[in-house]
Amino acid sequence: MAKIIHEYIQNTQDLPFKIFEFHAHNLKRIVPMHWHQSTEILYCAKGNLAVKVKDSKFLLKEKDFIVINPYEIHSTQSPTENWILCIQIPFSFISLLTSNHFYKEYLFDANSCQKNFKKNTMLTDYLDQILMLDNHANNNFIDNLKLISLVVNILTVLFDKYSIHTSDVHHMKNISFIEQATNYLSEHYSQDIQLHDIAKYFSYSDSYTSRLIKSSLSTTFSEMLKIIRINKAVDLINTTDLRLNEIAEQTGFKNYRNLYNAFYQSYQMSPKEFKINHQ
Protein backbone atom coordinates (compact mmCIF):
# COMPACT_ATOMS: atom_id res chain seq x y z
CA MET A 1 0.00 0.00 0.00
CA ALA A 2 1.26 3.45 -0.88
CA LYS A 3 2.41 5.86 1.79
CA ILE A 4 1.10 9.36 2.25
CA ILE A 5 2.84 11.59 -0.25
CA HIS A 6 3.96 15.07 0.74
CA GLU A 7 4.23 17.49 -2.16
CA TYR A 8 5.86 20.75 -1.11
CA ILE A 9 4.96 24.05 -2.74
CA GLN A 10 7.76 25.51 -4.81
CA ASN A 11 9.95 28.08 -3.03
CA THR A 12 8.38 27.29 0.33
CA GLN A 13 11.84 27.92 1.86
CA ASP A 14 11.39 31.60 0.95
CA LEU A 15 8.13 31.84 2.88
CA PRO A 16 7.74 32.59 6.61
CA PHE A 17 5.63 29.41 6.98
CA LYS A 18 5.39 25.93 5.50
CA ILE A 19 2.68 24.86 3.06
CA PHE A 20 2.26 21.36 1.68
CA GLU A 21 -0.39 18.95 0.46
CA PHE A 22 -0.78 15.24 0.97
CA HIS A 23 -2.90 12.57 -0.65
CA ALA A 24 -3.59 9.54 1.54
CA HIS A 25 -3.93 6.19 -0.21
CA ASN A 26 -3.23 3.89 2.76
CA LEU A 27 -6.50 4.16 4.67
CA LYS A 28 -5.10 2.63 7.85
CA ARG A 29 -2.11 4.92 8.07
CA ILE A 30 -1.93 7.13 11.17
CA VAL A 31 0.23 10.18 11.76
CA PRO A 32 1.43 9.59 15.35
CA MET A 33 0.50 11.85 18.23
CA HIS A 34 2.79 14.84 18.36
CA TRP A 35 2.96 18.54 19.09
CA HIS A 36 4.97 21.44 17.72
CA GLN A 37 5.45 25.16 18.14
CA SER A 38 3.70 26.07 14.91
CA THR A 39 0.00 26.69 14.47
CA GLU A 40 -1.31 24.12 12.00
CA ILE A 41 -4.24 24.58 9.62
CA LEU A 42 -5.63 21.42 7.98
CA TYR A 43 -8.01 21.91 5.05
CA CYS A 44 -9.81 18.95 3.52
CA ALA A 45 -10.10 19.66 -0.20
CA LYS A 46 -11.44 16.16 -0.97
CA GLY A 47 -12.36 13.06 1.01
CA ASN A 48 -12.23 12.91 4.80
CA LEU A 49 -9.64 13.31 7.54
CA ALA A 50 -10.05 12.19 11.16
CA VAL A 51 -8.25 14.49 13.59
CA LYS A 52 -7.74 13.97 17.31
CA VAL A 53 -6.76 17.07 19.29
CA LYS A 54 -6.05 16.28 22.95
CA ASP A 55 -9.24 14.48 24.03
CA SER A 56 -11.49 15.75 21.21
CA LYS A 57 -12.14 13.98 17.91
CA PHE A 58 -13.14 15.67 14.65
CA LEU A 59 -14.00 14.35 11.21
CA LEU A 60 -13.13 16.78 8.42
CA LYS A 61 -15.29 16.43 5.34
CA GLU A 62 -14.86 18.13 1.97
CA LYS A 63 -14.33 21.89 2.41
CA ASP A 64 -13.91 21.55 6.20
CA PHE A 65 -10.89 22.76 8.11
CA ILE A 66 -9.43 22.74 11.60
CA VAL A 67 -6.80 24.90 13.26
CA ILE A 68 -4.50 23.40 15.89
CA ASN A 69 -2.81 25.66 18.42
CA PRO A 70 0.86 25.37 19.38
CA TYR A 71 1.62 22.59 21.88
CA GLU A 72 -1.73 20.87 21.38
CA ILE A 73 -1.18 17.13 21.16
CA HIS A 74 -2.78 15.81 17.99
CA SER A 75 -2.81 12.98 15.47
CA THR A 76 -4.55 12.30 12.15
CA GLN A 77 -5.90 9.33 10.24
CA SER A 78 -7.38 9.09 6.75
CA PRO A 79 -10.62 7.04 6.70
CA THR A 80 -10.95 7.64 2.94
CA GLU A 81 -8.65 8.66 0.14
CA ASN A 82 -8.27 12.40 0.43
CA TRP A 83 -6.53 15.60 -0.56
CA ILE A 84 -5.38 17.69 2.37
CA LEU A 85 -3.76 21.12 2.50
CA CYS A 86 -1.55 21.74 5.51
CA ILE A 87 -0.29 25.18 6.55
CA GLN A 88 2.19 25.33 9.43
CA ILE A 89 2.71 28.86 10.71
CA PRO A 90 5.59 29.46 13.15
CA PHE A 91 4.80 30.87 16.56
CA SER A 92 7.17 33.78 15.93
CA PHE A 93 5.32 34.85 12.77
CA ILE A 94 1.89 34.97 14.43
CA SER A 95 3.35 36.67 17.51
CA LEU A 96 4.78 39.38 15.26
CA LEU A 97 1.44 39.91 13.52
CA THR A 98 -0.47 40.07 16.81
CA SER A 99 2.01 42.15 18.82
CA ASN A 100 2.60 39.12 21.08
CA HIS A 101 -1.07 38.77 22.07
CA PHE A 102 -1.41 35.31 20.50
CA TYR A 103 -1.19 32.42 22.96
CA LYS A 104 -0.88 34.78 25.91
CA GLU A 105 -4.44 36.09 25.48
CA TYR A 106 -5.94 34.44 22.40
CA LEU A 107 -6.14 30.89 21.09
CA PHE A 108 -8.02 29.32 18.19
CA ASP A 109 -11.15 27.28 18.87
CA ALA A 110 -11.31 23.97 16.99
CA ASN A 111 -14.96 23.41 17.93
CA SER A 112 -15.97 26.74 16.44
CA CYS A 113 -14.15 25.84 13.23
CA GLN A 114 -16.15 22.65 12.89
CA LYS A 115 -19.51 24.25 13.65
CA ASN A 116 -19.29 27.44 11.60
CA PHE A 117 -16.70 27.05 8.85
CA LYS A 118 -19.04 26.26 5.97
CA LYS A 119 -20.85 29.52 6.64
CA ASN A 120 -17.66 31.38 5.74
CA THR A 121 -17.07 31.14 1.99
CA MET A 122 -14.30 33.74 2.25
CA LEU A 123 -12.03 31.25 4.04
CA THR A 124 -12.84 28.52 1.54
CA ASP A 125 -11.91 30.87 -1.28
CA TYR A 126 -8.56 31.80 0.35
CA LEU A 127 -7.64 28.15 0.93
CA ASP A 128 -8.67 27.12 -2.59
CA GLN A 129 -6.52 29.93 -4.01
CA ILE A 130 -3.52 28.52 -2.13
CA LEU A 131 -4.21 25.12 -3.70
CA MET A 132 -4.37 26.75 -7.13
CA LEU A 133 -0.99 28.43 -6.61
CA ASP A 134 0.46 25.02 -5.84
CA ASN A 135 -0.22 24.05 -9.46
CA HIS A 136 2.40 26.53 -10.67
CA ALA A 137 5.52 24.79 -11.90
CA ASN A 138 7.85 27.54 -10.68
CA ASN A 139 6.47 29.96 -8.15
CA ASN A 140 8.14 33.38 -8.37
CA PHE A 141 8.29 36.16 -5.81
CA ILE A 142 4.90 37.45 -6.94
CA ASP A 143 3.33 34.07 -6.20
CA ASN A 144 5.06 34.04 -2.84
CA LEU A 145 3.68 37.50 -2.07
CA LYS A 146 0.21 36.21 -2.97
CA LEU A 147 0.70 33.24 -0.63
CA ILE A 148 1.81 35.49 2.22
CA SER A 149 -1.18 37.76 1.62
CA LEU A 150 -3.58 34.81 1.58
CA VAL A 151 -2.21 33.36 4.81
CA VAL A 152 -2.41 36.76 6.53
CA ASN A 153 -6.01 37.10 5.30
CA ILE A 154 -6.79 33.63 6.66
CA LEU A 155 -5.30 34.53 10.05
CA THR A 156 -7.34 37.75 10.10
CA VAL A 157 -10.56 35.78 9.62
CA LEU A 158 -9.51 33.14 12.15
CA PHE A 159 -8.83 35.71 14.86
CA ASP A 160 -12.04 37.56 14.05
CA LYS A 161 -14.36 34.55 13.87
CA TYR A 162 -12.70 31.50 15.41
CA SER A 163 -10.55 32.66 18.33
CA ILE A 164 -11.27 32.65 22.03
CA HIS A 165 -9.96 34.86 24.77
CA THR A 166 -8.23 32.82 27.43
CA SER A 167 -7.91 33.91 31.03
CA ASP A 168 -5.39 31.10 31.56
CA VAL A 169 -2.43 33.25 30.58
CA HIS A 170 0.50 31.32 29.11
CA HIS A 171 3.83 32.89 29.91
CA MET A 172 6.76 32.77 27.53
CA LYS A 173 8.78 30.84 30.08
CA ASN A 174 6.30 27.97 29.68
CA ILE A 175 7.14 27.88 25.97
CA SER A 176 10.86 27.81 26.69
CA PHE A 177 10.33 25.15 29.35
CA ILE A 178 8.35 22.77 27.15
CA GLU A 179 10.88 23.08 24.32
CA GLN A 180 13.76 22.32 26.67
CA ALA A 181 11.80 19.52 28.37
CA THR A 182 11.02 17.95 25.00
CA ASN A 183 14.68 18.09 24.00
CA TYR A 184 15.72 16.57 27.33
CA LEU A 185 13.27 13.69 27.04
CA SER A 186 14.23 13.13 23.40
CA GLU A 187 17.80 12.54 24.59
CA HIS A 188 16.94 10.36 27.61
CA TYR A 189 13.73 8.53 26.61
CA SER A 190 15.48 5.13 26.50
CA GLN A 191 16.43 5.42 30.17
CA ASP A 192 14.30 4.74 33.24
CA ILE A 193 13.50 8.43 33.57
CA GLN A 194 11.05 9.82 36.14
CA LEU A 195 9.39 13.18 36.77
CA HIS A 196 11.95 13.87 39.49
CA ASP A 197 14.80 13.59 36.94
CA ILE A 198 13.46 16.34 34.71
CA ALA A 199 12.52 18.47 37.74
CA LYS A 200 16.09 18.15 38.97
CA TYR A 201 17.40 19.12 35.53
CA PHE A 202 15.49 22.42 35.78
CA SER A 203 16.08 22.81 39.54
CA TYR A 204 12.31 22.81 40.07
CA SER A 205 10.19 20.87 42.52
CA ASP A 206 8.36 17.78 41.25
CA SER A 207 4.95 19.39 41.81
CA TYR A 208 5.90 22.62 39.99
CA THR A 209 7.33 20.66 37.04
CA SER A 210 4.16 18.59 36.84
CA ARG A 211 2.02 21.74 36.80
CA LEU A 212 4.15 23.31 34.07
CA ILE A 213 3.73 20.26 31.85
CA LYS A 214 0.00 20.14 32.51
CA SER A 215 -0.52 23.84 31.79
CA SER A 216 1.61 23.76 28.63
CA LEU A 217 0.53 20.48 27.02
CA SER A 218 -2.67 19.60 28.90
CA THR A 219 -1.19 16.24 29.74
CA THR A 220 0.92 14.51 32.38
CA PHE A 221 4.63 13.81 32.48
CA SER A 222 4.07 10.08 31.97
CA GLU A 223 1.84 10.70 28.93
CA MET A 224 4.34 13.16 27.47
CA LEU A 225 7.13 10.60 27.86
CA LYS A 226 4.97 7.84 26.38
CA ILE A 227 4.21 9.93 23.28
CA ILE A 228 7.91 10.62 22.73
CA ARG A 229 8.72 6.92 23.16
CA ILE A 230 5.93 5.84 20.79
CA ASN A 231 7.13 8.29 18.13
CA LYS A 232 10.67 6.95 18.48
CA ALA A 233 9.30 3.40 18.20
CA VAL A 234 7.30 4.37 15.09
CA ASP A 235 10.46 5.81 13.54
CA LEU A 236 12.37 2.57 14.20
CA ILE A 237 9.48 0.47 12.84
CA ASN A 238 9.46 2.51 9.64
CA THR A 239 13.21 2.80 9.10
CA THR A 240 14.85 -0.37 10.51
CA ASP A 241 14.53 -4.14 10.49
CA LEU A 242 14.78 -4.40 14.27
CA ARG A 243 12.51 -6.90 15.96
CA LEU A 244 9.70 -5.41 18.01
CA ASN A 245 11.14 -6.61 21.32
CA GLU A 246 14.41 -4.88 20.40
CA ILE A 247 12.53 -1.69 19.58
CA ALA A 248 10.77 -1.92 22.97
CA GLU A 249 14.13 -2.15 24.72
CA GLN A 250 15.69 0.73 22.77
CA THR A 251 12.76 3.10 23.32
CA GLY A 252 12.43 2.68 27.09
CA PHE A 253 9.39 0.41 27.08
CA LYS A 254 11.70 -2.38 28.32
CA ASN A 255 9.61 -5.25 26.92
CA TYR A 256 7.15 -6.00 24.14
CA ARG A 257 4.13 -6.12 26.47
CA ASN A 258 4.62 -2.48 27.51
CA LEU A 259 5.11 -1.47 23.87
CA TYR A 260 1.97 -3.39 22.92
CA ASN A 261 -0.12 -1.72 25.63
CA ALA A 262 1.08 1.77 24.63
CA PHE A 263 0.32 1.19 20.94
CA TYR A 264 -3.08 -0.32 21.58
CA GLN A 265 -4.06 2.53 23.88
CA SER A 266 -2.98 5.11 21.30
CA TYR A 267 -3.91 3.47 17.97
CA GLN A 268 -6.26 0.58 18.85
CA MET A 269 -3.86 -1.80 17.16
CA SER A 270 -0.77 -3.79 18.08
CA PRO A 271 2.76 -2.80 17.01
CA LYS A 272 2.68 -5.74 14.57
CA GLU A 273 -0.53 -4.48 12.97
CA PHE A 274 0.87 -0.94 12.92
CA LYS A 275 4.00 -2.19 11.12
CA ILE A 276 1.94 -4.06 8.51
CA ASN A 277 -0.36 -1.08 7.90
CA HIS A 278 2.54 1.33 7.46
CA GLN A 279 4.62 -0.68 5.02
How many beta strands in the DSSP annotation? 11
Name the helix and strand elements from N-terminus to C-terminus, one letter apiece. Answer: EEEEEEEEEHEHHHEHHHHHHH
- Unreliable runs, pLDDT <50, ≥5 residues? 1-11
How large a portion of the residues is in β-strands, by DSSP E?
Answer: 15-25%
Q: Find the structural class using helix and strand composition.
A: alpha+beta
State the share of residues found in helices, binned by percent: 40-55%
Main sheet characteristics: 5 strands, antiparallel
| Strand line-up of the largest beta sheet | 1-2-9-4-7
The count of helical stretches stands at 11
Whole-angstrom Rg? 20 Å
Note the topology:
Layout: E1 5-8, E2 18-23, E3 30-34, E4 39-46, E5 49-53, E6 56-60, E7 65-68, E8 74-77, E9 83-89, H1 91-97, E10 106-108, H2 110-116, H3 121-133, H4 141-161, E11 163-165, H5 172-188, H6 195-202, H7 206-217, H8 221-239, H9 244-250, H10 256-267, H11 271-277
Antiparallel strand pairs: 1-2, 2-9, 3-8, 4-7, 4-9, 5-6, 5-8, 10-11
3D architecture notes:
Helix content is 47%, strand content 19%. It contains eleven helices and eleven strands. The chain has helices at residues 91-97, 110-116, 121-133, 141-161, 172-188, 195-202, 206-217, 221-239, 244-250, 256-267, 271-277; strands at 5-8, 18-23, 30-34, 39-46, 49-53, 56-60, 65-68, 74-77, 83-89, 106-108, 163-165. β5 and β6 form a beta hairpin. The N and C termini lie close together (7 Å).
Name the descriptors:
279 residues, alpha+beta, five-stranded antiparallel beta sheet, four-stranded antiparallel beta sheet, disordered N terminus
